[in-house]
Write a structure and sequence with these properties.
The complex is a heterodimer. Chain A folds into 2 domains: 134 residues, P-loop containing nucleotide triphosphate hydrolases (Rossmann fold); 66 residues. Chain A has 9 helices and 9 strands. Chain A has a 6-stranded mixed β-sheet, sandwiched between helices. A 3-stranded antiparallel β-sheet of chain A has the order 2-1-4. In chain A, helix 7 links the parallel strand 6 and strand 7. Chain B is built from 14 helices and 1 strand; from the N terminus they run βαααααααααααααα. The chains are: A alpha/beta, B mainly alpha. Strand 2 of chain A pairs antiparallel with strand 1 of chain B.
Chain lengths: 256, 302
């Protein structure tokens, strides 16, 4: 795909988008209860209602091609949910969200990996999940194999791998793709220092190829390396949006 | 990976989540997204990812027989064992000739395996794929196509038993055997709406899953798979003949017959085709209505 075409197309924009999770307990998930609730009339005002948790509220943002956005915030501030909203997994329960471009979400390095099949087969499958074609993945397989340094182990079933080896494999695949919109959630660890240095380089190459990046992390170092602007999430809302250094300063400055 | 807000409301640093309430089954207030276009885009988008679900469907089958020497051929063998055993048993019980009873049971069983697979696994299709649904923005139909494709592969494996059976008990086949192909396609098309519809509804109401399993089991006995309803219709006892006529109200009878008749070289009864086509249309309309309304909710419900 040529760059100018991509540039005109890739964008994410949300307008007052909110994400409310219904919390079903065993009772409200049953059809019987719902039907009986319809027949029985109002026993209490909360009968037949499902409590919701507002995970995101009034998210308004507009990201264009070239955006390199870091997401900061405490645990439970809504970073991961926001990434899922931006990837289209959650459509907003209120407000609007429109996503233009091929999204590659990298939230969990292990998702889509099958322990019973070989490393090679897992590379192909993981690539298909990320929106690549089989042919594209076959072209990249040598490159990935070299990067992971797993050698003959790639023909072994994944269940024989150590945690670190799995991370190597997953990182190898994830960093080989050509996404238009790259959504990264942290979770890049459990590898030795030398490999981490190597994967950082590859990760920043990947970010350079991607049209748009949103990266949630707790690591200032990683954020500074990959992003130029940032969004600070708190209590499911955008607290501050702007230049990376400004946001980081404000975020670090506030009492926890 | 940081934890989504909803799972750790008690985090001291995260602050209290905002808890409110909405009616149980009301749709999200915005209506613009609940249009037909996005429902159809889900179906066609999923179709576009054929290489993914095609691969995964195969993977599912190989996975099941991994490390066994014979592999997926076990599907074929277990079907052969079941059909032969039941064929001999019921041929004796009903006093039928084995060369009639066994092919009848075998074909009925193969078709039933496909139907029940689509329904029982369909009811679980989104719940079983929770991890993928929450991590990858793929159309819902990907999971449905993968399921129907997997069941089709099972069907193909079982068809080997049918071919062997033809050598032992030759059937009076004619051109109409070709009708088995469109009949199977119809079956698969119905499998897709069933899996999609049941999948969405059971994801929201988990109690429906065990109910579905029990009903499917019951329907096996109510559907003429091991017993021949033609025999009962012609029974000299008028009560039995009357009751046998009730079997016509069983939709599964028609689905079985559209394939069984051509495969056994019986006369094709077009009534069954009309019923099956009718169910296909009605089923897809229901499926699309539900898909349009609740497609975007599935990732919240799983």
């Amino acid at each position: 795909m040529n760059v100018s075409e991509t540039a005109s197309r890739v964008s994410i924009s949300t307008q007052n988008a909110s994400v409310d999770f219904p919390i079903f307990d065993a009772r409200s998930r049953s059809l019987k209860k719902t039907i009986m609730g319809m027949v029985g009339g109002n026993i209490s005002t909360t009968e037949g209602k499902v409590p919701v948790i507002e995970a995101l509220r009034d998210i308004t943002m507009h990201l264009e091609h070239g955006a390199r956005v870091g997401l900061v915030g405490h645990n439970g501030a809504g970073k991961s949910t926001l990434l899922r909203l931006l990837s289209g997994i959650y459509e907003p329960t209120r407000g609007e969200a429109s996503i233009n471009g091929r999204v590659a979400p990298v939230f969990d390095l292990g998702v889509g990996m099958d322990p019973e099949i070989s490393g090679f087969e897992n590379i192909i499958i993981r690539g298909l999940f990320l929106g690549m074609t089989r042919k594209q993945m076959e072209e990249r397989i040598d490159d990935i194999a070299a990067f992971t340094e797993l050698g003959d182990f790639l023909s072994m079933p994944l269940r024989t791998y150590s945690t670190g080896m799995r991370v190597r494999l997953a990182l190898g695949v994830v960093t080989s793709i050509d996404p238009e919109i790259l959504l990264l959630d942290e979770g890049i660890g459990a590898v030795d220092a030398a490999f981490l240095e190597k994967s950082k380089r590859r990760l920043s190459d990947l970010v350079d190829r991607a049209g748009l990046l949103v990266f949630a992390s707790h690591s200032d170092e990683f954020l500074r390396e990959l992003c130029d602007t940032a969004i600070w999430m708190e209590h499911g809302q955008i607290k501050l949006q702007g230049d990376l250094e400004d946001v980081l300063r404000a975020y670090k400055g506030q009492p926890a | 990976m940081s934890v989504p807000a909803r799972t750790d409301p008690g985090q001291p640093t995260g602050g209290p989540p905002i808890v409110g309430s909405v009616p149980a089954m009301t749709a999200p207030p915005t209506t613009s997204r609940h249009d037909w276009r996005s429902a159809l885009a889900d179906l066609s988008g999923g179709w576009g990812q054929r290489s993914l679900w095609g691969h995964l469907g195969w993977q599912d089958i190989r996975q099941r027989y991994r490390r066994s020497v014979l592999g997926p051929i076990w599907i074929t063998i277990s079907m052969a064992v079941t059909a032969v055993a039941l064929g001999i048993l019921y041929a004796g019980l009903f006093g039928n000739d084995l060369s009639v009873q066994l092919p009848y049971i075998l074909v009925g069983f193969i078709v039933w395996a496909f139907i029940s697979g689509c329904i029982t696994e369909g009811a679980d299709v989104f719940i079983a794929n929770e991890g993928l649904i929450k991590h990858l923005p793929a159309p819902l139909s990907v999971h449905v196509y993968r399921l129907v494709w997997r069941q089709s592969l099972f069907f193909a494996h079982n068809l080997i038993v049918y071919l062997i059976m033809l050598l032992v008990f030759p059937q009076p086949l004619d051109w109409s055997v070709l009708l088995a192909l469109p009949a199977f396609l119809l079956l698969a098309v119905n499998g897709a709406w069933v899996a999609m519809l049941f999948g969405i509804v059971t994801t929201r109401f988990r109690d429906l899953n065990p109910i579905t399993q029990s009903i499917v089991q019951l329907m096996f006995f109510l559907t003429p798979i091991v017993w021949m309803y033609q025999d009962l219709l012609n029974s000299s006892n008028p009560t039995i003949a009357d009751r046998a006529r009730l079997a016509e109200f069983n939709p599964f009878l028609h689905f079985i017959e559209v394939i069984r008749q051509p495969l056994l070289g019986q006369d094709v009864v077009w009534r069954h085709w009309v019923v099956v086509l009718g169910i296909t249309v009605v089923g897809w309309v229901m499926c699309l209505v539900v898909l349009r309304r609740y497609r975007s909710r599935v990732s919240y419900w799983v």
